[in-house]
Design goal:
Blueprint: H1 7-20, H2 33-40, H3 44-56, E1 60-63, E2 67-70, H4 84-90, E3 95-105, H5 108-114, E4 122-131, E5 134-144, H6 150-153, H7 156-159, H8 162-168, E6 175-184, H9 188-194, E7 201-210, E8 216-224
Antiparallel strand pairs: 1-2, 3-4, 4-5, 5-8, 6-7, 7-8
Helix pairs in contact: 1-3, 2-3
Length: 237
């Protein structure tokens, strides 16, 4: 958990705010490590950690020997091209889901991801995604309860889609940032629901979804069965 009174947190927030208010634009080079060290009177380790987190969260990217730059928004895949349900349907799968839990929680770590007060209630939807009746992903979505209430979230039982549910309440994500990693699945309950052995590696994806105003709508975590899921990236020069 980050201490909001630290200079490390202030460095991150100052850069994020500069990006959001377009003082720093995609492709702009941010101040060097030495400049930020002097400006905030901190160690190189503090600056590197702040940069590392901002790169992980999709705000910045580094180029060896050149410096650190603001990430270009167009490098992030559009939601219309990565809709999980649409991808599966286009590939000929029959899709379904099993709802594990719909609840209202208070969680300081998740609240920070959503950019809201630590005590603000959050609507949480946890479900298993199925393709041809096989479990291929376990998804947990978190959204400010002022945007989607606990009662409204139950519409997912009818829609069988988180994003269709959002759309029904005129909540429209327009772009996302995703971070992929390999992570062992050690939750016994999820292991059983996913038919995955203890400690088996999965694709672990952290997603933050934004609206047209670049406001955070959703934070999500997904475990993908590595036997069912792969990622292909096309790069055109």
């Amino acid at each position: 958990m980050e201490n909001r009174g630290t200079k490390y947190y202030q460095i991150k927030q100052d850069i994020i705010q500069a990006i959001k208010h377009q003082k720093l634009k995609p492709g702009d080079k941010v101040d060097s490590e030495s400049v930020i060290k002097k400006k905030y009177n901190v160690s190189a380790t503090t600056v590197r950690k702040a940069f590392s987190d901002l790169i992980s969260d999709g705000y910045l990217y580094g180029v060896q020997g050149l410096g650190t730059f603001v990430a270009k928004k167009q490098m992030i895949r559009n939601l219309t091209s990565i809709s999980f349900s649409d991808e599966l349907i286009q590939q000929g799968y029959e899709i379904d889901m099993k709802i594990d839990d719909i609840s209202e929680i208070v969680n300081e770590k998740i609240a920070e991801k959503l950019g809201i007060h630590k005590e603000q209630p959050i609507t949480c939807i946890k479900r298993v995604r199925l393709a041809n009746n096989e479990p291929i992903a376990y998804q947990s979505s978190y959204i400010d309860s002022r945007i989607l209430s606990l009662e409204d979230a139950k519409d997912i039982y009818k829609t069988k889609s988180f994003y269709k549910t959002l759309s029904n309440f005129r909540i429209i994500p327009t772009w996302v940032n995703e971070n992929y990693s390999i992570k062992e699945l050690n939750n016994t309950k999820i292991q059983k629901m996913m038919n995955i052995k203890k400690g088996e590696a999965t694709f672990f994806v952290k997603r933050i979804a934004f609206n047209e105003a670049d406001e955070i709508i959703e934070y999500a975590e997904t475990y993908f069965n590595k036997e069912w899921y792969s990622v292909t990236v096309n790069i055109k020069i």
